[in-house]
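Q: A reviewer asked whether we had any structural model of the full assembly, not just the individual parts. We don't, so I'm hoping you can provide one. Inputs are below.
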Amino acid sequence: MAQDRPKILIIDDEDVVLDSCVQILEGSSCQVATANDGALGLQLLQELRPDLVFIDLMMPGISGVEVLEQTRELDPSVVTIVITGYATVGSAVEAMKRGAYDFIPKPFTPDEFRLITQRGLERRRLVLETMTLRREKELLKDHFAAIVSHELKAPLGAVQQNLFALTQDLSGALTDGQRKRLERMQSSIESLLVLIHTWLRAYSADIEGLRDRFKPTCVRKVVAKAIESVQPHASRKDIEIVASVKEPLGSIQGDEGTLAEALTNILSNAVKFTRVGGKVLVRADEEDNAISISVTDTGLGIAEEEMPYIFEGLHVGKSVPAAERGSGLGLAITRRIIDAHQGSITVESQLGRGSTFVIHLPTLEAGPCSRHEPDADVVAESHQGGNE
Amino acid sequence: MSPRRRLLVIDDDPDFVEGITPILTGADYEVDVAYNPKDGLQALQAKSYDLLLLDIMMGRGAEGVMIARKMRKDPRLRDMPVLIITGIREQIAFLFPGGPLHPHFMAVDELVEKPVEPQLLLERVSALLQAAEARKSPAT
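A: Here is a predicted structure for the entire assembly that you could use as a starting point for your response.
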């Protein structure tokens, strides 16, 4: 509550009821105000901004139901409890349908009234707390990118910059061991910076704003870009990435860079979970105005019970070896990117056998992008295994 | 060989500045540093520099953008090459939602992300100096 003393307003046309309520609450820490008709009640509501309002349903003049509705309109966070003169469940249910939190039938005992007051105030406290938390969450989400970038990335970046400078300054004076240590520090900081970058991608509003930048995009280029970026990792593990891209292949409406990022996430998982010397297949196909890009690995596979969670943020698979653990955000980001492209992503997996992820994207009617587009040819060369 | 080129760094993070100045002086550039936008603008007015290394996020926000804006209005500073150094590309995306990641604040500018590897930094600096030179004396 805004103040230490919660404010309660009681609106009832019977002075006896008002007096006894005030009496019951006397000695409690509450500040109590009363109104003997709806009009005065609404006026006090505006002036006092109470936490909890009791409203008698049967009043001459403005009806209780109307007072209830106007209260909800004025401030939906105010907790309202209706007093039903005749203990019909019907009118109470009707009032609760219109937003009342609870009802108390007349006549009531002091204990009953104290109890419902306590519950109403508790409810108000929860409502306010939820609102504050929600606001904080929104604020944090909005500013997350800015906060993280400055507070985390700036000092880390400065450390890295100084390591660069030191390594260069001392290039003649370092022993092999010292140089290796400096390199390890640099690569650790690099991983941290990449991790922060991934977090930023997952939380920033950037993905939602993506649609403004959509343009006809060549799927072949997206595939080639993604393969290119995981190639070093694959080569280190002696894994062959075999790509087969249907010819001709259509375009889609989207953003090349982000789509490549989405596919890279899937590909790099495939490489991560495939054993040394294994194969990862990438297949791009087109059928019925839809393009599908599938990535099949012969890796660890995903346990059935984990399937529902793999696209949720922060999920890290149980079977993932410690050395290969990531942020658990890759697939969540991927799904957000694919969703923004009006596409879908599906997965089939068998534990111990491997997984196949398939991205489905609607084809753009403009027709296939030319194979002979200059940079399409350049990237085509970076394919491993070549086209079919 | 032409006289030593003079560079100005405007960046409010002294730790980061310490990490790039040795790289630049090591490559025989003369380097001045301003640690806030105000000193930076004063230095730009007082001395003549061949290139500016400009941080975007300074002080309470994107004060680097404000410097670029002032430079564009100044005929003497308008054509100075600028290497924009930014914490992350997201900052640019954050400042100019929906815009390109390299907004081209100046006639001759280039964008690098912090931290920047020594080789890349020196490449960009020398490429910008050359580009500015080429603009001054049209190729024959």
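A: Points you may want to mention in the reply: Chain A has three domains: 7-108, 140-203, 211-380. Residues 296 and 356 of chain A are 4 Å apart (CA to CA).
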